[in-house]
DNA sequence: CGGCCCATTGAAAAATTTCAAAGCTTGTGG
DNA sequence: CCACAAGCTTTGAAATTTTTCAATGGGCCG
């Protein structure tokens, strides 16, 4: 029951019951494996399905007229994309894998049917959408108002937390399959500057390069450097009012 | 029936029917007037209600440890905020008025009841949430990958389009109650640099200062300068699949 | 071995911030 | 009606940050 990452993300949404989880599992039957650097969704394409990342990393991005790329956010195990897709004619963003990964996909209509069966599940996915929005807000703030070094440390801390929340522990929660160009495109800087912001972190032993990826060595120091406040990722209390809405 | 701005925003969501609109109107009975520079929601506060802007402007923002401020987005007539609020313990953002304004507020539970009565309305508000997310994505891209002048022109075009979509036409759609400091905090730059990016636009007759606000004079030139592509704001086609979901 | 992708560096150019000061406009109270 | 206070805009100049251009080195794969 709890073997899928999305269940672990929903652990904090405590009003979910076993029946709801089964309903969710029923959506996640069509699993697909993709290689690294594969396109899951092209910008401009019609969004046919909702996707849940089972394992692996992906990124959601936009391309600019001059060929530049802005990464909007990273998709980790348990994350969903395309939730709103069927409400629009085409996608404004693209999605590409950063590692080999597995996704479950299901059509919008099927989700609506599942909501009929379990309104609490609808609320749970809405809650995930709300989390997403908080993360986008933080991405805006990170890019708009922090220095290059802080931006980088801050992103690392977010990813670390999110991996833990997805039930990925130990070393795996400290290894990010990101190149410095990818970092640059996420943090709104040139790849050269990304490198120059990254080096000092290595020099001080906060992070290291492993094979084509980044290893987080000293989360505490990174958190302090970034003035990282995880409250936008954490929900300690159960949303009581929301629970009352579906007493069951 | 169509006197409220939110109805005009939903005009493009064409599967909505009169009964749904009435259900929505029933939510919008508690109207409140606020002065300029008033706090509608403090960072960290519990979000009690959902708010719909009837008239006027507001901004949604986050404050940083060093006192800096990042404006996440602007709220115009018809816009909603707090939709996800009841699902979390506290708000990660604040909301302040930029003009005197009127809002309608209603509790989360009341919205869920309304959804029971009109599932199509639930879909409509989900659609608005999807629009919001697209706008946040574009804000990230604007800040992350555009030059200062482009950022500014791009934001002006977005606001112009959104005002039109909200049914605000003529001169009113070209007047923005924004100071250069507010612009700076939205676009992720210092107020001095905001000024130096703004002057050339004035010199070339693209915009002008009016009383404490900005007047858009040459949208076409601004759009070209910003390489503005409005597709993220426009939905031409009705979302057919979504419509089929609620045949009435 | 050759090609490709990624990381790294130096140096000059360009963009942006910071600091400090001054000018304007508007609303208020005398 | 005038003076003043407050908030917003504008400017100059120096300091910093960031980009751009160009080139080099390392590692992995076919």
Outline the structure in words.
Two copies of one chain form a homodimer. Chain A has 248 residues and is of the alpha+beta class. Chain A has a single domain, classed as Jelly Rolls (Sandwich), CATH 2.60.120.10. In chain A, 42% of the residues lie in helices and 19% in strands. Chain A is built from nine helices and eleven strands. Chain A has helices spanning 5-9, 18-27, 108-117, 119-145, 148-165, 180-187, 191-203, 219-226, 240-245, and strands at 31-34, 39-41, 49-55, 58-63, 69-75, 80-81, 94-97, 101-107, 175-176, 207-209, 214-216. The first copy, chain A, has a four-stranded antiparallel sheet with strand order 1-8-3-6. In chain A, helix 2 runs antiparallel to helix 3 (108-117) and helix 6 (180-187) crosses helix 7. Chain A is globular, with a radius of gyration of 18 Å. The model of chain A has no long low-confidence stretch (mean pLDDT 93). At the A-B interface, strand 5, helix 3, helix 4 and helix 9 of A face strand 5, helix 3, helix 4 and helix 9 of B. Chain A binds a DNA duplex (30 and 30 nucleotides) through helix 7.
SSE blueprint and pairings:
2 copies of one chain form a homodimer.
Chain A: H1 5-9, H2 18-27, E1 31-34, E2 39-41, E3 49-55, E4 58-63, E5 69-75, E6 80-81, E7 94-97, E8 101-107, H3 108-117, H4 119-145, H5 148-165, E9 175-176, H6 180-187, H7 191-203, E10 207-209, E11 214-216, H8 219-226, H9 240-245
Antiparallel strand pairs in A: 1-8, 2-7, 3-6, 3-8, 4-5, 4-7, 9-11, 10-11
Helix pairs in contact in A: 2-3, 3-4, 5-7, 5-8, 6-7
Chain A binds a DNA duplex (30 and 30 nucleotides) through residues 147-148, 179-181, 189-193, 195-196, 198-199, 209, 211-212.
